[in-house]
């Protein structure tokens, strides 16, 4: 059955329903259970089923840790930032240390899974594992945020060359870094906030809404997909912007567009998001060339923004909390949970339908661990020297409570990605 894999990261209810409906009729159960995912919760359920089918004990991989269950713990061994973002090519707003964010506790919290330890990424080892490979981060600015943090950290052991950079009006739409010999590693970012074709604000911030075509994917990521050895897809935040959604030439729904005489889909944009994920993964399945070359496709779940509902978005305390949330403190967001579920289910379906050996699908499930880090955003510190060092923050200020400080919590996303790569063969 090849190397198809799907890491579900804590989706017991989904897997239980999925297996219940498939036990007697679907061969995809065999595909899912006889692969070796890097992360899987519901261990007892799946191991019991596998043992029943095979008559043998489950492999060790099924007993690995669920990285979605855990807590943030203070790490006294951390003496400073993992890397210096001063001379890294990343969005300047994310350089919190350089910009003077005063409460640097966000650098000292470490994610501690409930049943194991998550090792910090070692840049030398990372480059060894991905030797000769092409990594691509596809999606919105959260994909770029993660890619830039990774590149900056890897730069501590090998300085990359920037081979393509298009500074269009929106900025940073496509970048490529090349880590030269002996690594021969490429890391690219592809701006595609809907994964499918969007026209409007996503291409021109001077506009206020988007038109989204769910039946059309975007270039250039689609043109390069077969060459990608590791593909990280991260999108979701643009789906709650005012938009008209088209599918098969017809209006499929509108969101927050009172000027359009169509029924507002409200939270139903999750359905559009699901369809975009599905079609992107179907395309990857279709266009990935035959053969045994290993290809890892990782879909990230959405990390919520932390604009405090008690304040306006531009209030200085919109995201000024200095510490992570404890267990049960993080506000529950129904839409975010539904979007997370869509990613988990669509990735499982893609894994079941994979069309060649060596193609593996996994999920970078960061929703829960990220939801607990309201302290890890730039907040008001998006410009170097504007505040801090004795300069007070006025009551009304521009805030970034969506993107992550780099270094900061975003590095944990790459710690988990490293574990996926290390087990992908």
TrEMBL record:
Residues 118-420 form the Trichome birefringence-like C-terminal domain. One of its GO terms (cellular component) is Golgi membrane. It is a single-pass type II membrane protein. InterPro entries: TBL (IPR029962), TBL_C (IPR026057), TBL_N (IPR025846). One of its GO terms (molecular function) is xylan O-acetyltransferase activity. The keyword Membrane applies. It is found in: Golgi apparatus membrane. Residues 63-117 form the Trichome birefringence-like N-terminal domain. Belongs to the PC-esterase family. TBL subfamily. This is Trichome birefringence-like N-terminal domain-containing protein. It comes from Hordeum vulgare subsp. vulgare (Domesticated barley). The lineage of its organism: Eukaryota, Viridiplantae, Streptophyta, Embryophyta, Tracheophyta. The gene is LOC123411410.
């Amino acid at each position: 059955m090849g190397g198809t894999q799907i890491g579900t990261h804590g989706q017991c209810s989904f897997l239980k329903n999925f297996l219940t409906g498939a036990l007697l009729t679907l061969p995809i159960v065999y595909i899912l259970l006889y692969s070796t995912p890097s992360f899987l919760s519901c261990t007892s359920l799946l191991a019991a089923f596998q043992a029943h089918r095979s008559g043998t004990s489950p492999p060790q991989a099924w007993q690995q840790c669920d990285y979605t269950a855990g807590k943030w713990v203070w790490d006294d061994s951390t003496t400073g930032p993992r890397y210096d973002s001063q001379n890294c090519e990343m969005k300047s707003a994310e350089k919190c240390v350089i910009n003077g964010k005063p409460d640097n506790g966000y650098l000292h919290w470490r994610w501690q899974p409930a049943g194991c330890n998550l090792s910090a990424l070692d840049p030398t080892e990372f480059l060894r594992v991905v030797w000769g490979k092409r990594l691509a981060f596809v999606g919105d600015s959260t994909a770029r945020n993660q890619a830039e943090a990774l590149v900056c950290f890897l730069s501590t052991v090998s300085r990359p060359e920037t081979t393509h950079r298009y500074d269009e009006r929106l900025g940073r739409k496509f970048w490529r870094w090349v880590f030269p010999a002996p690594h021969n590693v490429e890391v690219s970012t592809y701006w595609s906030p809907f994964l499918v074709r969007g026209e409007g604000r996503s291409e021109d911030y001077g506009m206020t809404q988007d038109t989204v075509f769910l039946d059309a994917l975007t270039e250039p990521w689609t043109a390069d997909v077969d060459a990608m050895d590791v593909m990280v897809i991260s999108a979701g935040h643009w789906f709650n912007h005012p938009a008209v959604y088209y599918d098969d030439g017809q209006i499929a729904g509108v969101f927050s567009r009172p000027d359009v005489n169509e029924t507002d889909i409200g939270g139903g944009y999750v359905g559009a998001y699901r369809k975009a994920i599905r079609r992107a993964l179907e395309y990857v399945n279709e266009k990935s060339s035959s053969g045994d070359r290993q290809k890892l496709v990782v879909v990230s779940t959405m990390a919520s923004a932390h604009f405090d509902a008690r304040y306006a978005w531009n209030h200085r305390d919109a995201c000024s909390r200095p510490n992570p949330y404890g267990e049960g403190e993080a506000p529950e967001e129904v839409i975010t949970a539904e979007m997370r579920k869509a990613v988990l289910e669509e990735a499982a379906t893609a894994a079941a339908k994979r069309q060649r050996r060596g193609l593996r699908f996994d999920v970078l499930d960061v929703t829960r661990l990220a939801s607990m880090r309201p302290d890890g955003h730039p907040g008001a510190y998006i410009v170097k020297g504007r505040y801090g060092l004795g300069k007070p923050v006025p009551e009304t200020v521009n805030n970034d409570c969506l993107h992550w400080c780099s270094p900061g919590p975003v590095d944990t996303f790459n710690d988990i990605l490293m574990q996926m790569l290390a087990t992908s063969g």
